[in-house]
Amino acid sequence: MSYKAWFQCASGCNERYELNEIIYNCKTCGGLLEVKHDIEKLKHRSPGSWMRLLDERYRRTKWPFGSSVWGKKEMVCPNVDNENVVSLYEGGSNLFWAERLGNIIGTEDLWIKQCGNAHTGSFKDLGMTVLVSMVKQMISEGKDIMGVACASTGDTSAALSAYCAAAGIPAIVFLPKNKVSTAQLIQPIANGALTLSLDTDFDGCMEIVQKICRENNIYLANSMNSLRIEGQKTVSIELVQQLDWEVPDVIIIPGGNLGNVTALGKGFLLMKELGMINKLPRIVCVQAAKANPLYQSYLSGFKEFKPVQAQMTLASAIQIGNPVSINKAIKMLKLFNGVVEQATEDELANAAALADKTGLFNCPHTGVALAALFKLLEKNEIKKDERIVIISTAHGLKFTDFKVKYHENKLEEVESKYANVPLELPPEYDKVNRAIIDKISEYS
Ligand SMILES: *Cc1c(COP(=O)(O)O)cnc(C)c1O
Ligand SMILES: [Zn+2]
């Protein structure tokens, strides 16, 4: 049984291209491409048999199927030979039952999908393994590719650098100067990537990297490259798998360039088409109020879309004013009875901190999603008895500066409701003992 996938123009002209062609836009109409699969071939296996196969492979050792992306290889990217797969054992991240947080906000069936528990600390690994594997495949076929490049708000560059380093392929990353965290900046440096710090924002980096890739034999790794979406869509399959193949009612995801929300939807549509599930969840996409073009469009019933100038936000990975996947995302949200919310700096920081107090350690983008959850529960747009999954996109340890400043109450536009500062004490038993007795009663 040979499975097949190809690029197809997503703008309606349906032009097809091979996955091993260096192409990001349709040659006929310029539209973005999408990876399509031979669904009839995939349907030869029954839904039950797919589920058993995926369960058997999940987090085992047989190369490359223990990776939760490559364990779904037939549905993701069958075109890469197993020996060209560049895998760091992606996916399989914890689906955290947020019992205590749920109790605080009055909902019992709340889950946090910890996509940041990943090799480079964000969900970007899920897509990058597919893209870099395809590059290795093309190089093995004799294609002339000098390196792989991306513009990034910090996490894409970390993932690209790690996967390229593992494969021995040069990586070139374009970062907006002073707009990524120290942890994000040091990852490509440590992995030996050519790291370019440009005095502009993400949208400015994006413009230049596209031109560089067009003019040279450098492969573009941004999310207009739809290979990444194929890997990222496995998050839907994986989380349903973790819920014993039951579809949750609502999924909340932060959105910047809007590739991830598109991928989330794509995974569900595929499972439905293959008969593995029979309903779809509602999808809530959430933006920072400082960079909210999708939210603005949602307010007009998606009738119009205008890019915005993204303002500085703590949720730096979604500080994007002109999302590349806007059309795909709107199409997807319409299919999933979609809701778009926004979160202010104060809302996102306090939401992340409240959840941290229940054992999590959230990045600001997860804070954006959590803030939306709190607001939508309040407005009764999400019901208390619904099964809710929050997509946590990165590990909080990438954003320690955000956390330190939060607890010192030094973040602009944020009033830190849950600040917790260390007590400075002399090394004297009585004073230490007294301080503990005084403070422990304040624990909540
Ligand atoms: C990339 C990223 C996002 C946004 O994903 P998009 O596909 O750009 O919408 C959200 N959170 C984190 C931590 C990210 O790295
Ligand atoms: Zn086209």
From TrEMBL:
Cofactors named for this entry: pyridoxal 5'-phosphate
Cited InterPro entries: Cys_Synth/Cystath_Beta-Synth, Thr_synthase-like, TrpB-like_PALP, TrpB-like_PALP_sf
Sequence intervals crossing the membrane: none
Family annotation (NCBIfam families): thrC
GO biological process annotation, one example: threonine biosynthetic process
Alphabetically ordered keywords of this record: Pyridoxal phosphate
Keyword Ribonucleoprotein annotated: no
Chain positions found as N6-(pyridoxal phosphate)lysine: K124
Domain of life, per lineage: Bacteria
Entries under SUPFAM superfamilies matching the protein: Tryptophan synthase beta subunit-like PLP-dependent enzymes
Domain Tryptophan synthase beta chain-like PALP: start-end pairs: 86-393
Protein name: Threonine synthase
EC identifiers of the protein: 4.2.3.1
Gene Ontology terms, MF aspect: threonine synthase activity
Keyword Nucleus in annotation: no
EC class of the enzyme, as a word: lyase
Family listed: Belongs to the threonine synthase family.
